[in-house]
Amino acid sequence: MMLKKVMIHISSRHTEASDALLGYMFGENDPAEQSADGRLREDDEDGIDGDEPLEILTEGSLFVSKDGRVTLSYTETELSGMEGAKTSVVFDKGSEGLVTMMRTGPVNTALVFEAGSRHICVYQTPYMPFELCVHTLKVDNHLLDTGTLYLDYIIEFRGAKAEHNLFTLTVRDSSDHPKSIQTP
């Protein structure tokens, strides 16, 4: 078992998904329109126009159990819009391509990320629960070796609105206190 305090740098960008990206999600676009890393090429080099970036640096804990279950936990800040919620990123060693992000507190949910798959999740808010669908385009999970997790996914809200998200999480030992943290 291993438990240690870590510094977590989160870089997240999201935008309303374009029709072309939705076509890609449902397999309707020509693969020639994709870049080498599997993302759709559009006007912007990364396939996202009008993005809303979010950068967060926070402290958390990384726990690896005897049976290989990895849990990275941190408390959400005001910047994320979910102040007071606790987020846990969970996966099993040997199954790094299947990642669950659980939030508890003012909002409760379990979002499941698995490349090429769609998972229906329920988001509990203080006002009402609602269903959303997570369609994961890419999971690049190297939390245990290089300290990085990259998620490229689309969230569909109630079948009406879709949002494309790029999420990069970088972990460093809290004793390192880096002046700046580079993300891939």
Number of helices: 1
Q: Can you tell me the overall shape?
A: globular
H/E series: EHEEEEEEEEE
Average pLDDT score: 80
Query: Helix/strand-derived class?
Result: mainly beta
Q: Please report the distance between the alpha carbons of the first and last residues.
A: 28 Å
In total, the number of strands is 10
* Computed Rg: 17 Å
- Strand percentage, roughly? over 45%
* Major sheet description: 10 strands, antiparallel
Strand order of the largest sheet: 6-5-4-3-2-1-10-9-8-7
Which stretches of 5+ consecutive residues score pLDDT under 50?
Answer: 29-49, 177-184
Describe this structure in words.
- The chain is mostly beta strands.
- 4% of the residues lie in helices and 54% in strands.
- The protein has one helix at 19-25, and strands at residues 2-16, 52-64, 69-75, 86-92, 98-104, 109-114, 118-124, 129-142, 148-157, 161-173.
- The longest helix has 7 residues, at 19-25.
- Strands 6-5-4-3-2-1-10-9-8-7 form a ten-stranded antiparallel sheet, covered by helices on one side.
- A hairpin with a 4-residue loop joins strand 5 (98-104) and strand 6 (109-114).
- The radius of gyration is 17 Å and the shape is globular.
